[in-house]
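Researcher: Before we compare anything, I want clean individual predictions. No alignment, no superposition, just each chain on its own. First chain goes here; please echo the sequence and then give the structure tokens.
Model: Echoing the first chain and its structure:
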Amino acid sequence: QVQLVESGGGLVQAGGSLRLSCVASRSISSINAMAWYRQAPGKQRELVAAMASGDSTNYADSVKGRFTISGDNAKNTVYLQMNSLKPEDTAVYYCNAVVIARGYGAMDYWGKGTLVTVSS
């Protein structure tokens, strides 16, 4: 079991920055992969950035060069640094954790989300 709590969302003007945090209930080094997803009104949830064990990362094309995912093992926290924000980044951002357990396969855990609103 993993509980995830996001924070850091808010209202920001276009061109501004925000840093989202996701605190996990267990060591993130014990989690196989962590990611940020987002869901805009009327749209499907989409992957924004992901980080797997070993620190490999990948990003949606729409955020490459602007967003950075990182982790702090000491704080059990994953961050999403978002720079040069655009109105189209407006969405609820969700933290996701994937744990692969022998005999159970891959299990997904989700936070409740944090709202990011970018004004033009």
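Researcher: Okay. Second chain, same rules.
Model: Second chain and its structure:
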Amino acid sequence: QVQLVESGGGLVQPGGSLRLSCAASGSIFGIDRTAWYRQAPGKQRDLVAAIFRGGSTNYEDSVKGRFTISEDNAKSTVYLQMNSLKPEDTAVYYCNIVGWIGARFGDYWGQGTQVTVSS
């Protein structure tokens, strides 16, 4: 069974940085899209950043210039580098991969990792 395991969340002060990781349980290839979403309490899950096949990226306006999404296919891992964090970035962050992991094509989700930005 394919799993995405996220790590790197935690409590950070405003202005600080965190790097989230999302490790897939199998080899990843033929990826259509990798992405990070976030969901704050009482709100819907929103797209934060995405990488598409071919390498183009897309960022939600509020994180442009602060967050960077990247992937290391050799390690089957997706990253989200978050800098200059703000209290409004507080949310549960989820990674999402659409593509082939191992021998299965699917729309895969991690379990989520909490990011709290507070002084």
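Researcher: What stands out in the second chain?
Model: The two ends are 40 Å apart (CA to CA). Additionally, The CA atoms of residues 28 and 73 lie 6 Å apart.
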